[in-house]
Amino acid sequence: MVNKRIDHPTGTETVGHEWDGIEELNTPLPRWWLWTFYATIVFAAVYVVLYPAWPMIDKATAGTLGWSSRGDLAKEMTAADMARQSVFEKIAATDIEALPANPELMQAAVSGGAAAFKVNCVQCHGAGAAGYQQFGYPNLNDDDWIWGGTLTEIEYTLTHGIRWQNADDTRVNYMPAFAGVLDAGQTAALAKHVLSLSGKATGNPVGAQLFAENCAACHGPAGAGMPAMGAPALNDAIWLYGGSEAAVRKQILAPRHGVMPAWKDRLDPVTIKMLAAYVHSRGGGQQAAPAQPDTQPARAVTQTADKVKTDG
Amino acid sequence: MADPRDWGGALGAPAPVAEPDLRHAELYAKGKTVHNKRIDGPFRRFKWLVMLVTLAIYYITPWIRWDRGPYAPDQAVLIDLANRRFYMFDIEIWPHEFYFVAGMLIMAGIGLFIVTSAVGRAWCGYACPQTVWTDVFQHVDRFFDGDRNARARLDKAPWGVAKTTRRLAKWAVYLAIAFWTGGAWIMYFADAPTLAVDFWTGNAAPVAYATVAILTGTTFWLGGFMREQVCVYMCPWPRIQTAMLDEKSLIVTYKDWRGEQRGSLKKAAKNPDQYGDCIDCNMCVAVCPTGVDIREGQQIGCITCGLCIDACDKVMVEVGRPRGLIDYATLDQCKAEAAGAPATPAWKALLRPRIFLYFGVWGAIGAGLLFALGTRTHTDLTVSPDRNPPYMLLKDGSVRNAYTLRLRNMEARPREMEVAMVGLPRGAVMWTDAVSIENAAPVQIIAVPANETKIVRAYVMLPPGTDEDDSEHFAFRLTSLDEQGEQDIAETTFAQPIPDTPEDDE
Fold first, then answer.
1. Cα distances (angstroms) measured from residue B337 to each of A73, B34, B120, B297, B340
2. Is the pTM of this model over 0.90?
3. A91 near A108, Cβ under 8 Å?
4. Residue B502 in contact with residue A241, Cβ under 8 Å?
5. How does residue A3 score in pLDDT terms, banded at 50, 70 and 90?
6. Rounded CA separation B156/B460 (Å)
7. What is the interface pTM, i.e. ipTM, of the complex?
8. Mutate which of B433, B459, B496 to disrupt the A interface (most A C-beta within 10 Å)?
């Protein structure tokens, strides 16, 4: 029964309900609070009509505005592409060797290349572009280039790949396997001689003789390599398949040959150009001018990670 | 202090006893507009002064100019979010120095504690923006609709042409004030004169218009219509203050031992012994900006603005009784007075250990901030070594490491800075993306633009044969090449391959 009264200690009216002597004080909410609550209901009703809301069997109701987060993403991506369009056009129109002369354009190319690298290249060459020696994926940060380290040469390698059968102009060479040609003693002598070229072992006349007969044609008499045909330098500290005597012996007897896809069918020329710029900027890129020593890094503006604007 | 009635009073006057035929209790209280009566007195004048000062600070500050030279903005107070700088007169705060802002916020918090334990809810009563703007809007009400009774009458009057016109005009003024409030806010975030022109020519950033729109809306609604409801229902501060106040806190009190039994002058004239000093004129209720009855005791709706003291003092003078029937006092003082002790001057309430403790903490933080401000350098270097790959073996066997250097020039002028390597073996050289390897040297000079952090990718190379450990600790030292010669040192490591043991990898 409703039995309202004023509660003496608090001076507050009770709501009139009583359960075993327990009563409820009436401290009413302000009415505007209620209106705020109604306003949220109205908001929700309007929202349900305008935006995706009710989960149906395969997807939610679409809403009359046709909004979707995927649509937002597409819009933003389009806007970003539009914003980059002029830069892309400029990069496309610039000869790749002329890029470093335009630091702003080079920086844009390196940024774009860094993004594309994360999507397409890290699987083999690693996130830091340091490669994996045990699998023969070359390091792109150093100053040793099997097929040449100028912007043009890197771009060519990217475009046509290495030993990629589906590409006509792919870079290709094969080192013969010397298993069965050289016996164990000869192999050891040759390996020692190869290591001696970089001062890692003492030379021997047998090895030197074998080298001059079998290897110097491609690798050069002093083992300096021949980037034009992809013959690696043997007189430096960098070894694609390992620099121990055992590893060198293994490579002499049964050479391994890495394969890199040709990217011309998968990526557009601008992206390839930007990738070349990025790889070139990693600290070991070579100048195109023949007068320059080949250890010189690019004069190009290199890129720091936080300046990378687009993220693959 | 813990009279439970406080909470009842907080919700306005107790709900009127419902009509007997009503079967269910009212769950929602109807809003009632507070029509506070005009009053003059020392507290009202103090309130005017505080309002004037706070509004002047709010509206004028962004327009003060401050010359910082050609490389920094000339606005005295500027929160430059786009460039991540906070300018306040001679002080410029960078994001990494945000602890200054954090320290100031802590000081503001403790400052509120000091004020609360010293003079009660003075913040609520005088300085809180909600209080100040409510005061402004209540004066607009008075200007358009007259004083308390006229306003109450107009509220009840039917909506005719006259009332509608008046209301529209009043709300237009509300809106203008609200707009000005929102408009002033954005001036703190960009160059005020430029932004003002851009704003009116439609060239300002969308966020500026959105901010003004939102703040105009909230000011219009909270100041024009919600008013004391904000203090009673929305604001957390009154709740915190109820926990902070005690019997030694200065509050506005009605001295019931002196006022009760209240009764009109006429009744009191008939039976002088039965009645106290309160003549039940309701002036204290009429002038209250939040509409509470202070005679019910301490309550959450009381923002201790002191206007009821002004009103009551005036009445007491008129009826020839001593002032201070309603007055600032602590509950302890009230108890003592009721017991017959002479009235204690209100300032004695200030002598509390709590205040000295708060003040000590507040002052210590302030002194610490000032010390940090005075001793900070305007040159900073951070180094992050490349982690992938950690080192790079070059053809000739030398080892190269790459680092990202951040050279911070916090001066408002471009500076040349020298970067040197400390603690690397002889032969170590460095070059950056700006100078090629043939210019590699142990030291590089780098020009850092004014007020900027320059990010430099640096390569450090050790010639072959210098590897001892697999990683070598060393440091980059940054020295500004000017008369200050400020320095900063950033420690890092030089990673190297594990020394060759040729036969162990078979």
1. 72, 33, 20, 16, 5
2. no
3. yes
4. no
5. low
6. 83
7. 0.75
8. B433
